[in-house]
Structures are given as structure tokens and as C-alpha cells.
Amino acid sequence: MKTKTPNILFIMADQMAGAALPFSGNAIVQAPNLSRLAEKGVVFDSAYCNSPLCAPSRFSMMAGQLPSRIGAFDNAAEFTASVPTFAHYLRALGYRTCLSGKMHFVGPDQLHGFEERLTTDIYPSDFGWTPDWEQPDQRASWYHNMLSVMQAGLCVTSNQIDYDEEVAFHATRKLYELARAADERPFLLLASFTHPHDPFAMTREYWDRYDHDEIDLPRIAPISPERLDPHSRRVRAMCALDEYEITEAQVRDARHAYYAAISYVDDKVGQLLRALEATERADDTIVLFVSDHGEMLGERGLWYKMTFFEWSARVPLIFYAPREFSPHRVSQHVSLVDLLPTLVEFASDGKAREYADVVDGQSLIPLIRNNTRAGPNTALGEYLGEGAAAPVLMIRRGRYKYIYSELDPEQLYDMDADPDELQNLAGESEHEQLCRTFKAEVIARWNPHALRERVIASQQRRRLVNEALTQGIHTSWDFQPHRDASKQYMRNHLDLNDLERRARFPAPEMPQPRGTAPRSNT
Length: 522
Prior knowledge:
It contains 14 helices and 17 strands. It has 522 residues and is an alpha/beta fold. The strands form four sheets. Strands 5-4-7-1-9-11-2-12 form an eight-stranded mixed β-sheet, sandwiched between helices. It has a four-stranded antiparallel β-sheet with strand order 14-15-16-17, covered by helices on one side. The protein is globular.
């Protein structure tokens, strides 16, 4: 059934670096379904996360607001129920909203505007992962360590594979249910996978798609700690990077497994696209593909995320609807906070919408339709999580990337002349005025000293709450999927003929009993 406003199939990966994909120039990775979306869709070549960490990035994306504005400081910060999300807005506009997979919601509200949630989350929803900026030299025991690299390789299955198989199954089945439903509302279905997030382990099927000897090593060799910027040194310490000696063979294994995991996600994308086509919804559905942040994957000797270097901060972003948008690539800087106003504009059929709260993003529709948009060519980023001791703030504008933290020397990179970010221009006389201008903007926009105090106060509160809630009877905030088995499959209180007909797609014609007048098949 065609809908006036478009359906939206939102597919999300976790920790998938924009630079790792074939449509961004990676000649090794095999992702034919994503390549098809890129070839016939609108590709944003300079899309950034607003925080290179899972939960803050996702909360910020859903709210269309920078993490600091909504208190989304780290992976144990509560996503407050009163913050409007794109799921709230679209639901208010008449959409049926559904989530299958990871969103890493923290706090008692585990829906945030979604009418249905089909799976539990893969990560905890409590305050147990709260960092402590007052003890910056104390490594959090619950955080990444280098075992993901040391133990990289083949597996038969894993915790992450179990999870993503469930996500794909329920998302695919939901597409079929939506096609068969009497509910005429357009849908927003968000299918969110945990791959290619570490640990770096993948099955033989995907591992064998690659020649191990052709797996490339990092473009930028490890940089000695004394030559790294202070934040990168803190990230190294947080990941216990020096606890083991990492060999070239282990680096290649980890990259091999990561590439294989991208192919795994790509197959899940293909599975969802086939279901969309089989249910005759492909022509009236916008497909959106994105990741929450990237993965350093050994570049500069760093792993995981938590920095504003390109492999960590730049993400894939594709809009695919060949009947609606002509294929092209967008070079302007955008970020994940732009998705809320974009989705709301799609759902509003282009009509102006008054927002219930501040929105930090701008709609991408002018760039999607005409490859032009008024306003500054800018993306903003904040890192307020573990491995930092003060806010790390980024402005990506024009050819430059500027990074500021009150505890560290400034960083300024000319991304046109130095795409590998190897030459810090801050401190050079010819860039002194530019740095002063950027710094003044950072101070005016964020007030970094006051923001640091807010983060520390939040950490103190959450650590106390978590300590209290772990004593005595434990009441979990983790989402519990509920399925009413009395309405599944065949039950005696249901009409067999009606059920079998409604459950089949497309619905079969109803034969007419002898001696009855013809009747409609609707």
C-alpha cells in the first residue's frame, strides 16, 4: 500500500569508519549492498559524529542536539525521558515507530518515542560505566583493552553475532508484518547492528571472502607516545595499549576480522532491502544508512574511538530513494545532529515544523535534493567521556579541523593539504590569528571550564546512585522484550481462515461459496 509520506528504513552500524568502505576509496573491503546504495543514493563524504563514543553519539543524533546540551556525557549518562527525539516527532506526525537492535539507552526510559522495541539492548542501561575525571590516571576496569586485538580472528559464533542475528531476524519479520498490517500509517523502522564493533571476531564464511595477505596495514604507522598529543596518550592509557606487545600479525588479524564484519553487516543490509522489495515498499521508502562513530583500527597506533581523528570521527551517511533523489555526492560538512530535522522534514512533507526544544542540526534535504545548503560549512564535536580529563571540543569548518581542550595544547589541521592529520599547525605564526578565532568561538559556544564542572558533578551523582542501586534488591532498567504468545500463529479464539489470509503476503483471493454474490477482496 502506497503512503503519502515516505516510509523510512533507518539502518545503523556500530563503530563503522567512513574511511573503511569501498565507496570512500577502500579497495579491499567487500560491501556490495552498501555500494549499491551509494551508487544510486546520496553519499555524504564529510559526515561526522558529534561524539566519538556510542551512547552520547546516539542520544545526540536522536535529539538533534549536541551531547553537552542534553547531558549525554558518556556511556553511562542518562538519556532523559523529556528530551524530544526524532521518534517522538515522527510518531506525533502519524508514523508507526519501531526499533530493532542497539541504541544503548541509559536510564528507565528504554523507548524514547519508539512505539515498539523488538529486542533488548546489547549493553547495560545503568550508571555502572560512569567515568571519574577526578582520577584521570585510574584506568576503568570495564573499558576496552587490547585483548580484542590480541585475540582477533575466527569464531563459530559470538555474543555480538548472536545479537545481530536477532536484530536482523526481528527487523526483517517486522517489514513483513508492516506490509500485512491494517495500520495505514507510514513507518519508521530503525534496525541497529552492533557490528563491526570490537571484539574483532568473525565466522569463516566472511573471513574467507578476503585474502589474508592482501589485508592492508594501517596507513599511518604507530606514533611514539612522546610525539602524540596529550589526549591520544590518555586514550592509549585508557585502552591499556602498552600492556601487551602488539605484533604486525595481530594488527592484520584484527583488520581482517573488522573488514569481514563489515561484509557481515552488508549482508544484513541486503536482507532488509530484499524484504523491502518483496513487500512492494521499496518505491515509497527512504533508506538511510549511518554509523554512530568510526574505529581507529591501528591508525597512528590507536584503536577504537574517543578521538577526533578521521578514522574515529567520520562516519558513513547515505540516503537512498532512487525515485526521489538523483544520485550524487555531497562534500559539505554535516553531522548526526542534522538527522532529526531531516527526518522531521521528510515526515512533514516539506511543511515547516515548530520544534519543542532547541535543535542544533540543520535539515539535509537541500543537500539531498539540490546539493546546496545555506549556512556555515561546519560540523561540531564533543568528547566528554573516559580517557579525557576535560572537554575535548572540535570544530570542522572549510578546510580546517580545530581541536581544543583546556588542559592540552591546541590542534589545527589543514585537511586539504594534510588529510592524514600529521602536521599540527597550532603554534605556527601564520595560523595564530585563525587559532585565536577558533578558540574564541569555542569559549563562547561551550564555556569549557563550566562544562567540565557540569560533567564532574554529573559523574559524582551517578556514581552515588549506582552504588546505592547495587545494594539490596536490584531492579533492572534493561529493556525486556514482550511478546503476547496468545496472539501469535494459530489460537482457538482466532478465525483460522481470516488469520491465514491476513498472515499471507500478498493476500490470496477469496473464493466465493456457491450461490453467493461476489464480494470485495479488501
